[in-house]
Amino acid sequence: MISWHKKPQLTEEQEEFLEADFVEVFTTPIGQRVLGKILTDLHFFSRCEGEEEVALNNYAKQLLSYFGEWDVGSEELIINRLMRRDNVT
Known about the structure:
This protein is mostly helical.
């Protein structure tokens, strides 16, 4: 069990399990609605005004990094996914 009282230093195996947990939770329809609300509250979809909103936006990016796809070096993947037109509603 991971202790969350302070920022844990995760092993590679723990990080992989946590990434899988995030994917499992947020790929369901309910999880996607919840993630959308969280990202909205963290100013991910809006222009940031002020230091607090910038900090929240940065946390949104950190949260997305738990999926293993929002990290430095994954810019091409992110751009390709953003530019897909077939999943836009």
